[in-house]
Amino acid sequence: MNMHPARDPSWVKNQNSPRDSPRPFTRFQAHPSPKSILATYYFNMPKAPKFRKFAAVKKMINPNDARLKSNQLAEEEKKKKAEEAEKKHVAPTPTSMFLTHNTALAPPYRVLVDTNFLNLSLTNRIDLIKGMLDCLYAKAIPCVSDCVLAELEKLGTRYRLALNLARDPRVERLPCSHRGTYADDCIVQRVTAHRCYIVATCDRGLRRRLRKIPGVPLMFIKRKQYAIERLPIQDCRLENKPGLLDFTASLIFFTIPNLSRVELPFPL
To answer: Which end of the chain is more exposed for a tag (fewer CB within 10 A), N or C?
Structure first.
């Protein structure tokens, strides 16, 4: 005969604690009255949330909210004024520029060096001075700004060799007056103001920005050697190679009609 678990001594012994043993139902739990059923239902039934009355709460919109028509009209006026200012503003053309040809670029060249250019030069085992000499066929003076040095110092021990290369006495130091250590904006502003630099960088975003500025050549690393972009034809590279200059002149002669009547600065 199966006994109640509370009265079975073998079951009580097997339990870890006397609290684990189930307690028998009381008389009211075994046979609840209708009043107790209604009371439990009343106290356990869900209650509707209480809200304050609508008239008691005054809802107001923020005066700076963008959904207000007055704020929308003010934003449109600001945009129109900014567009008109951009249309009226014309950047002054440097006196050294003849169309896209920059006459201020002449040896010894001043090369403005970027952070990643120094690091990738060491990665590809390229000597900075010798590589520029092989690329430009003329003397080049690498220049480093204060923000580039600050970037290299922030990058830590991984860029320690690049920092030592930037501190070389053969590298010219350019002071910066702006806040922060972001070098890309500094390089763009410096090159826009003074078109006498060749910018050496491997950053595609920075090169895309610099291509919009006429007369600024770009130097980058290609196949473990330095390559130049947008350097004018009247450069010492062609002067040291007369065959290439003759080929370029003959190409111009055959592509442009009636060129024989025009006096050229070089013989054909």
So the answer is: N
